Amino acid sequence: MNAPRLNLTTRIVTHAILIALTIVVLFPIIWIIFASLKKQEDLFDSILMPRGGLSSLMLDNFRTLLTARPFFGWMLNSVFIASTQTILTVLLGTLGGFALAKYRFTCKPLIMGVMFATMLLPGQVLLPSSYELMRALGWIDSFFGIIVPGAVSVFGMFLFMQSIKNVPDELLDAARIDGASEFYIWWEIVMPTIRPMVGAYTLMSFLGAWNSFLWPQIVLQDERKYTLPIGLANMLGTSEYLTNYGVLMAGTLLAVLPVVALFFLLQREFISGLTSGALKG
Amino acid sequence: MITPGRKLAPYIFVSPFIVMFAVFMAWPLARSLWLAFHRPLPDGGYRFAPLDNLNFLIHDPLFWFALLNTFFFGLFYLALQVPLSLGLALLLNRKDVKAKSFFRFAFFSTHLVGSVFVAVIANIMLGNRAGFANQIAHFVTNEQIAFLSKPNLVMPAIVLCALWLGVGYGMIYMLAALQSVDEQLHDAAAVDGASPTQRFRHVTLPGIWPVLRFLTLIGFVGALQLFELPYILYQGNGPGLRAITIVGYLYAWGFEINILSYAATIGWVLAIIIAIVSAIYLRLSRSDR
Amino acid sequence: MTFPPGKPILLLALVGLSSGLFIIARPKKTDDSLHIWVFAQSHADSLRAPIDGKPSLADQYETMTGQKVSVDLVSFRALHIRLLSLFHSGAKGEKLPDLVAVEIGSVGQFLRQPPELIPFQPINAWLERDGGRERFVEARFAAWTRGGQIFGIPHDVHPVTLTYRKDLFDEAGIDVEAIQTWDEFADASRRYRKYWREHGKPQRLALELAPASSGDLVTLLLQRGVNLVDADLNAHLTDEVVVDTVARYARWVAGSEKFAGPASPGGENWCKDLERGDIAAMMTPDWRIDPLRKASPALAGKVATRPLPKFDPTDAPTSTIGGTMFAIPRNSRDPENAWKLAEFMLMSPQALAAREQFNGIIPPLREAWRDPTWHQPDPFFGGAKANELLIELADQIPRRTVTSYSVLASERLSFVLIDAVKRVEAGVDEKTLRDQIRIQLQPAQADVERAIEFSRLDKVDSTKAAQ
Questions:
Q1: Domain coverage including residue B215
Q2: If C466 and its partner were Cys, which of A162, B47, B263, C173 is the partner (CB 3.0–4.6 Å)?
Q3: Among residues C187, C150, C154, C158, which one has the least CA distance to residue C172?
C-alpha cells in the first residue's frame, strides 16, 4: 500500500525552508564574491551591492593579488602538493590495503593492531618530534617535508582494505590461473573494482591536503613556497598598519574554487564512499 | 599454484607503507614519548626527568583551562551540529523534494572551504564596527558590538563557524543513514497507525542510531583537536584566552616558546584522553548489541 | 584502455606533473647576496625601496661595496618560527640571515639561554670600538640586553603620546592640555561623557582601552616603572603598583562611571573611530601617528597630542609600545661583515634619510633628531610641533624588559583584569575591589613563577645531563 500523498502546502513549505536555509548558508560566499569586487571604501559601507551599483565593482583586487603577492605561486604549490600527496596516499593505501585484505601472512595481526592503535592518536602528538625529524632529514622548507609524511594515512589504508575485502576472490584466482602477476592483479583488477572508493578517498585526501595549515606552516619557510592557507592566513596577520580586505577576499575565493570544482566532479563517488565506511559502524 | 612471487607479494605490497609508517609515524611517536620524559638543558640537550613534565601539567592551570575550553566547545558544537544535520537530512530526504542533489551540493560545499579560510572570512565579517555582523546588529539594536573583543562571544563565534563548516558534512552521513532504513518498516508502521513522531522514534531513530553515534564520536574527537579556526580567527588566544584550545596550547609551547618536551607531554595527554573517549564509545556501542 | 584507478587519479597525476614542471622552472634565488629578514612593510621599504627616485639603501650599499643586499619580507609569525627552528637545529652559515629584525614582544624566546649561548652576536665590542653606544637612547637597549651583553641594534624608540580630538573635548568644556594626572583625566573624561550623553551622542567614549586584555595595562605599568617579569626572571604581578593600576583601570572601562572602551579591530578601523568621534583619545606610539595622518586626513586641525598623564610624579611622561631590534646571528656567515652592513643600513646618515621618507618613526639615534624635519609645525595637529614632542619624550621612555614569560604574565594579568571588571560591574566598593585584585594576583604570580621554574634555561642546571 502506498504512503499517503503529501499535500501541496507541505511541499511548498518544505521547499521554502530549504531555499531559505540555502540562502542563509551560502550567504557568506555571496558576501565574499561581492567583497572581492568592491572598492576598499565601499567594502563596509553596504552589505552586498555598493552604493554606486554594478559600475563601481572592479577586478582590481584580483589584479593586486596576482601581482603584489606570489599568489599564483601559492596556488601552484597547493596544487602540486595536494595532487602528489593524494596520488602517493592512494598508491600506498591500495597496495597496503590489498595486502591486508587478500593475503594471509605472518605479521599481519601485529601490523593491523599497531596501525589501528595509531589511528586513534591525534596528529598533534607527533608535531614536535616530526619537526625534529624533518630537520634531521633536511626537509625543512621543502615540499618533501609535507608530501612524504602526509602520504602515510592509516585511515586511508583501512578504508581501502574494507573495500577490497568485497572484491570477489574468484576474480583474483581466475587472473592467477591465467598467469597474471600479483602486481598486475592489483593494478588491473583490484583498482578498477574499487574505483568508487578511490574516487571518494581522492577527494577526501585532496581536501585535507589542500586545507592543511598547521604542519605546512611549520615546515615551509620561504614565502614563495607557501601554500594557499598559509599565504592567506599570514596576509591577515601581516602589517600593523593596513590590510586590504578586498584582496584577501579575492584570494580566499580563488583558493576555494579548485576544491569545489573537484567535488563537483566527484560528488557521487565521494558520498557513497564516505558513507559506506560509516554505515559499518 | 603458489609461486615464490605470490608468497612474497603481500610483503612487497605492504612494505612501502610499513617503511613510511615506521619512519614518519612510529619513530616520531616514540621520540615524542621520550621527549615527554625529559627536560631541556640550556645548550640544547636533554636530561632525564620522568615526572617533571607530568607534574607541571597537573598543576598547570592554563592546561586545564585549555582542556575545559576545548571540551566545552566540543559539547556545545555537538549539541547543535547533530540535531541540525539530522534535521536537514530529514528535510532533504522527503520524497517530494526536487533538485535534491543541488541542495545536497549547496549544503555540503561549506565543508570544502576549510577551517583556515573560514577563519579568515569570519575575522573580517565579525571583527568590525562597520563589518557585516555589526550592520545586522545595528538593525536590531542601536549598539555596535565588538564581536571579537568580548570574551563571552568567543565561544559562540567559534561554534558558529564550526557549525557552518560541519552541518553539511554531518547531513551527508545522516542522509545516507536515513536512506538505509528499510522503507518497508516505515510503511508497516504507518499501516499500524503510528504517527510521524512515533515512526521517527521507533523506526527511524533506531535505524540511524549507529551512524548518529559514529558522527558524535568523530565530531567530538575532531573537536578535541580544534586549533586552526580559533587561532586564525582571533590571531592568538582571544580575549580572556577564551579561544585557547589544547592543540593551540601545544603549539604555543612547542613552536612559540620552543620547549618541545612539554609540547610532547601535552600531545600525549591529549592522545590518552581521546583513547579514553574512544574506549567509552566502543563500550557503549558494544552494549547496544 | 581505461586507466585502472580511475579518471580522478589520472587527472591529479597530470595536474601534479604539470604543476611540478612549473615549479621546477621557477627561477632560483641567487644566493651570494647578503640577506636581511624583516617582517614589516615599512622596514622593507626603508631598506630597499628607491628614495625619492634615487637608489635605495640596498642599491647604495651594493654600489659602495659590490655586495648585493636582499631584503626578504617574511610574515611575522613565520619569521619567528623560522628563526627559532634554525637556531634550535644548530644551523650555520648560509641558512641563517645576515641581519634579522626581531620584534620586541617575541624577543624573549631568543634570549632564554645564558648569555654565552644566546644565538645572537653581542654588539658591545663593536659599539665600543666604533663609538656607537652614546649615540643611542640608552633605555632602548634594555629589552635586548642580558648579563650586560647587548644582542641587537635598536631600530626605534616608540614613545607614546595621548592623541585626542581637541575639538570634541573643547566643545565639552575640557582643556586636555592642562591635565597632569590620570585621575584628573578620569574626572574630565566622565564630564566629557556626561556632556555628550546630554547632547545626543551617548555612545561616545573618551579613551581607548581594551577591557578584556592587558596590552594597555602593560603600557601604563611601564609608565610607572613596572615590568611584569624582569631580566632576572622575577615576576612582579603582586606589586602594589599593579593592584593600584588594575583597580583604576577597571573603573575606567566598566561600571556606570566608565569612559573607556575598545577600538574597532582590524587595520585602520581605529582611525575611523577617532574620525567618527566614537572614541576621543588614544594612546599613540609614533607608529600609529603616521598611519592616522594618512588614513584620516579629515582629522587635520581637529586633533592634538600631548605627553601621557601621570599617576605619580615619579612616572615617566610616556611609555613605549612595540619595537624592533636588528640582530646578527652568531653563526651567520660573517658577523663582522654583517655589522658593517648594519652600520650602513641602520645607523648612517643615508639610512636616517631613508627612514624619514618612509615612516614617521623616531630613530633611536640622537644625532638624527637634529634634522629640521623633526622640528616642523604639523598642520595635522593644528600647527603644533608633534614630532618635537615625540623626540622630547623619546629620551624619557621607561626601560622595558621582555622575557619569554612576559606573554604568560600579561595573559594571567588579563584574567585578573576581567575579574576586576566583573566586580566593578557588580558595583563593589573600592576597598573590596582592591582586596579582591590582590587575592587574584597571587595565583597569577604563582603560575608565572612555576612556569619560570619549570622551563628557564638561563641557569645551567647543576644536575647531570641525559646520557
A1: 50-288
A2: B47
A3: C187
- CATH number for the domain running over C160-320+399-455: 3.40.190.10
Q: Does B58 touch chain A (CB under 8 A)?
A: no
Task: Decide: C257 and C429 in contact? Cβ < 8 Å.
Answer: no
CA distance to partner chain C, nearest, from residue A266 (Å):
8
**Chain C neighbors of B31, CB-CB under 8 A:** none
Flag residues of chain B having pLDDT under 70.
Answer: 1-6, 95-98, 127-147, 182, 240, 287-289
In 10 A of CB A7, how many CB atoms? Answer: 9
Full DSSP string of B105-150: HHHHHHHHH-HHHHHHHHHHHHS-SSSHHHHHHHHHSS----TTT-
Task: Please indicate whether, in this complex, the C-beta atoms of A192 and C6 are within 8 angstroms of each other.
Answer: yes
Q: What is the DSSP letter of C398?
A: P
Test the B interface: residue of C269, C455, C458 with most B CBs within 10 Å: C455
Degrees, nearest 5: CA angle A213-B275-B159: 45
pLDDT digits (tens, 9 = 90+) for A34-50: 878 877 666 666 666 66
Neighbours of B89 (CB within 10 A): 23
ipTM: 0.80
Q: Which residues are registered as beta bridge partners of C69?
A: C34
Q: What residues 185-204 of chain C have any CB closer than 8 A to a CB of chain B?
A: 203
For residue C248, is pLDDT > 80?
yes
Contact (CB, 8 A) for C30 and C62: no
CB B167 within 8 A of CB B85: yes
Q: Are strands C303-307 and C160-165 parallel, antiparallel or unpaired?
A: antiparallel
Q: Give dist(CA B105, CA B83) in Å, integer.
A: 20
pLDDT digits (tens, 9 = 90+) for C326-366: 999 999 999 999 999 999 988 888 888 887 776 678 889 88
Distance of alpha carbon C4 from alpha carbon A191, whole angstroms: 6
- CATH of the domain spanning C34-154+321-361: 3.40.190.10
SS3 C261: strand
Provide the CATH number for the domain around residue B104: 1.10.3720.10
- pLDDT confidence tier of residue C464, bands split at 50, 70 and 90: very low
Residues of B in contact with C203 (CB under 8 A): 143-144
Structural domain boundaries in chain C: 34-154+321-361, 160-320+399-455
Is A238 or C398 the better-scoring residue by pLDDT?
C398
Q: Residue A143 corresponds to which amino acid?
A: F
The span from the CA of C247 to the CA of C354, in Å, is 44
Cα C218 to Cα A85: distance, rounded to the nearest angstrom: 46
Identity of residue C165 = R
Minimum Cα–Cα distance from B235: chain C residue: C77
User: What is the gyration radius of the CA atoms in chain A, in angstroms?
Assistant: 24
* Antiparallel, parallel or unpaired: β C281-285 and C160-165: antiparallel
| Chain B residues whose beta carbon lies within 8 Å of the beta carbon of residue A183 | 9
Q: pTM of the entire structure?
A: 0.81
- Looking at the structure, give the CATH architecture of the domain made up of residues A69-279: Orthogonal Bundle (1.10)
- The confidence score (pLDDT) of residue B282 equals 80
How far is C276 from C413, CA to CA, in rounded Å?
31
Q: How far apart are CA C342 and CA C334, in angstroms?
A: 12
Residues 62-121 of A with CB under 8 A from B: 91-93, 95-96, 98-100, 103, 105, 108, 111, 114-115, 118, 120-121
User: What region, left, alpha or beta, does residue C310 occupy, with left being phi > 0 and alpha being psi -120 to 50 degrees?
Assistant: beta
Residue C308, CA distances (Å) to B125, B194, C123, C323, C451 in order: 34, 76, 33, 19, 34
Q: Which residues of A touch B190 (CB under 8 A)?
A: 3-4
In the structure grid, which three cell numbers stand for residue B214, read together? 559514529
Residue-wise pLDDT for A122-146, tens only, equals: 777 788 788 888 888 888 888 999 9
